[in-house]
Amino acid sequence: MLPRPLQRTLSVNSIRRSIQTKPRPSVSPLGFAFDIDGVLMAGPDPLPTAKRALQILEGDNPFNMKIPYVLLTNGGGKTEAARAEKLSARLGIKLHPEQIIQAHTILKDMTRKYADSPVLVLGGRNDELRQVAESYGFRKVFTTPDVLLWNPSVWPFQTINPSEMLSRPSVDFSKTRIGAVLVFHDPRNWGRDVQIILDVIQSGGVIGNPYVDHTSHPVEIVFCNPDLLWKSDFPRPRIGQGAFKESFQAVYKAITGSTSPYPFVQFGKPTAPTYKYAEKVLVQLVKNRDGSNAPLPGIYMIGDNPESDIAGANAAGWSSVLVHTGVFDPGSGAPPAHTPTYQARDVEAAVQWALNRTLFK
After folding, report:
1. Which segment of the chain is annotated as a signal peptide (predicted)?
2. % of the chain exceeding 70 in pLDDT
3. pTM over 0.85
């Protein structure tokens, strides 16, 4: 079945004429969550209607009302403050760090569990994710290049640049038990990182130790982004952290004959914890602005990926809008894997449709 035709969206001016007698709500009756890549951005550049969509929510609407929204992405690799600053410059809209929910932002809720335990953080460039993890409250953060610095024979196919050694901690991992492996962002060296995860979980957390029973010495593994594909500025979708997870599990099964006896947690869209976390943030934004602690009656997820954005929103009981500027290709003739509440040509049309449906009906 072909995707249903896009309905004509009312322009902001026509909406203004239709609600001249309607009172302004005292508290916003809805909130928005936007994916970033493929919805607001195409690689480093904003999509044509992204700025206008956010301006409407910033108050350029018939009620002159600010409507709460967050940017909910399976991307990451930076602090929320750094990403807010970068996106603000690109989009021309002032974004605040608390509006940015990256794949690993939810790990702020895990710092109490692992604050004083050594954790191995994977992904990102250089030492950025160590800084992100430390900003969340993790106090003993190590990376796979740290392991390579300790013993280069762990992965003999890579050499450490001498300039990188100066900023890295000197740690004896044969005497340091790793309590958890946290895959914050997409790893840059899959072979090295798969090898080191295997070393950690098979030795009960102490790299180089004899292999032990996983059930008696479990090491938790957390993956923050299940996306198999994502949309960049390249014409075709790229593989993401979900592909890394599949690769790791395939290698683990080939070596041990087992699928995954180790404990692991999956965050990121479309998982329920990520959507609950986003809803909590939206409610807090409303409370900070209006003093209201009431749940939002309606939340709209605007996304381009049916497998993550739409599936997660539908499961959370949100309304979902699938835009045609990212992963989903309406020209393919195939329906989306998960049916959205509505389909829109772009993010501005999605916002206008949601406002007309909720505020102006």
Report:
1. none
2. 89
3. yes
